[in-house]
């Protein structure tokens, strides 16, 4: 950190600049004060020579917009984006974006200060990154931009602060003819092979980051620098120094084949089932890092707003130069002079994440090797990368200053060359090539990281942040160039290996608004292989708009639509594509959605029944409860079978006081609830029968659930919450099951089963057997006689949830987070498996695939799939959701619907369509 220079802007919108924070490849960052709120912010201002390049300007603004969409959880939102005011001189006004200040250390800085992270800290770090990746990948995008300088360690957990790929660029230069050259670093095997990036590419980079965090070295640093790209593409990673508990997971992330890498949700779950925020509670940083974070915050908070007019006076910005003299332009402490931008505990150095202080040792020498652009023959592949000279070593630290940025030794004791971000020498690219604005060949759209806009690379040493091709926002295109369709978009160059710059960089030459046509000769992708325990790749994902309340219910219509009902409207998602087809406010607050024959969608709302056209959601029929059911208040649906639905309803009637005896005063009339159980045909839109039943707890409508449907009757349980106090006392701790005639609705009988309580989970089958939770066991009864048939012992301290009957098996679920299967006839235990969710809670909800081959358990933590016949654990899935750094993670439970060979997994707003057997 240093004093403001003469040519630095003093104001950025409502933000007043206090000091220079650091310099990056594409921007300068300033500590600033929000004049409206008084809060401290960090402003990232594009370098003037780059801001003048239209292609850079468009990309910068596009990444600012992306930052807003990605904000949440471990990513902080931008506060404002605009142009600076009060810039001296005739140069262009810089683009800028501001974000709130969060005290934190960059990962490479933290390793330099305290060495490798303890295992728990590494788990928190990796889980936080994976949680963010899971959110991004759920949109079908790839994050890109991960680097040790864009991953920060705050007191309450990790942060991602890269301002997209531009922020993570190792170098960026404005060239002739409105071109921009950006050196990209941190390659993956698929990039070296010339293939496009994907979500799996983010997982490879995450594996590298985790290995570096756990050991202080990277897995591919053994050997000469010029062979780094080959080692990444061909060699197995060196993980001997990684703790045993993390080694297998990191190795999976570093698989050469992207299809063999785990999903972000799987990594997050394996690192911290309770979430990064939960694991970080109570403090997660080693003492030296916690102290450095606190010291950094104190220094930044001590900065004062400059006097009116922006005059520079010694000490007014609270930032002394390294030699004790004021940091004025051209004097010691300014750029180009000794100590201009420092590194080590106590100061702020260049090329770091958003909020971190480094040593006051001298700055590493600049790497001023010019970026080279080489023209390639039309349609030709890039030539093999040349061997490049190693990067210069870091300058020695001042006497008595801790060498925070001397790289730790590689496995085997070999010292690492230079700074952990030693910049590679000149890579090259095809001039005039422009990465496409959208996903090439139908691949995922790269999703830049966002939050406190920053980057790992600087204009000097310290270069390589992870970065791949930079897709540009749409821009007016000139007349098409027939030769442009075959131009190479991205070429790879080997790089010197220093710390985390593991084998190279890449150069993208960005033109001025030029677009490149996708080639049609891309080889067919290899079929994705699934690792044991890894969820399959979703067929599609859908995220409900943040502008709408989360869906209340979800249902499948005719294997064609996923119908969602919410507080404000109903919506339909195409089951083939995951795209929203329509939304309608008419069906707001729907309680259920069913198929009304083959051509209509039935929705039950609190006040009416609606029939919607599946094509556009328009209301075709409407039946108001007050008109069709004599002013009855309709309760939730109890169940359905084909076109028939069953539900309860009630109203209040006046019971007149009896005529008093002679000489006595007449009593008061009473308002008494009257309840009914009804059957209704949603195809014919006709009530089938109505049977009086005991009223429930106020306001009087009982809540029923159909436990079994048989040929002649239905077996119904009343939910305990709707029982009146008198009914609870009369039951003496036992629950009841009622039998109603299917045709007439006549109540046939009411029975109790063993010691099953009103809350006990109960289900029956068509053969007349009822399965109920009794204490910690599951017991089978003959439904008509209540005779016990068999009993399966459960887990001590656990209770059974609602079982699921399929073929010869009864699938079971327990609050001990176990699921299983028993034989229907004998009660013999076939298998029992844990979902491996450690925390106790409600029994997982279980669902069978349409083929009944896969049993899927869903709870508040994850979704786990098992082979229904053997109990083999197939995979598990977690969508961590947005984590509140100082609070709990998203607590909405998972829900699962199955249709055909697809399982639709929902967690609040997010939906995933997984293939299942």
Automatic annotation (TrEMBL):
<feature type="domain" description="Protein kinase">
    <location>
        <begin position="1"/>
        <end position="273"/>
    </location>
</feature>
<keyword id="KW-0723">Serine/threonine-protein kinase</keyword>
<keyword id="KW-0808">Transferase</keyword>
<keyword id="KW-0418">Kinase</keyword>
<dbReference type="InterPro" id="IPR000719">
    <property type="entry name" value="Prot_kinase_dom"/>
</dbReference>
<feature type="region of interest" description="Disordered">
    <location>
        <begin position="305"/>
        <end position="470"/>
    </location>
</feature>
<dbReference type="InterPro" id="IPR011009">
    <property type="entry name" value="Kinase-like_dom_sf"/>
</dbReference>
<feature type="compositionally biased region" description="Gly residues">
    <location>
        <begin position="455"/>
        <end position="466"/>
    </location>
</feature>
<protein>
    <submittedName>
        <fullName>Serine/threonine protein kinase</fullName>
    </submittedName>
</protein>
<dbReference type="Pfam" id="PF00069">
    <property type="entry name" value="Pkinase"/>
</dbReference>
<feature type="compositionally biased region" description="Low complexity">
    <location>
        <begin position="389"/>
        <end position="413"/>
    </location>
</feature>
<feature type="compositionally biased region" description="Pro residues">
    <location>
        <begin position="433"/>
        <end position="447"/>
    </location>
</feature>
<dbReference type="GO" id="GO:0005524">
    <property type="term" value="F:ATP binding"/>
</dbReference>
<feature type="compositionally biased region" description="Low complexity">
    <location>
        <begin position="419"/>
        <end position="432"/>
    </location>
</feature>
<feature type="region of interest" description="Disordered">
    <location>
        <begin position="513"/>
        <end position="538"/>
    </location>
</feature>
<dbReference type="InterPro" id="IPR011047">
    <property type="entry name" value="Quinoprotein_ADH-like_sf"/>
</dbReference>
<dbReference type="InterPro" id="IPR002372">
    <property type="entry name" value="PQQ_rpt_dom"/>
</dbReference>
<dbReference type="GO" id="GO:0004674">
    <property type="term" value="F:protein serine/threonine kinase activity"/>
</dbReference>
<dbReference type="Pfam" id="PF13360">
    <property type="entry name" value="PQQ_2"/>
</dbReference>
<dbReference type="InterPro" id="IPR015943">
    <property type="entry name" value="WD40/YVTN_repeat-like_dom_sf"/>
</dbReference>
<feature type="compositionally biased region" description="Low complexity">
    <location>
        <begin position="313"/>
        <end position="343"/>
    </location>
</feature>
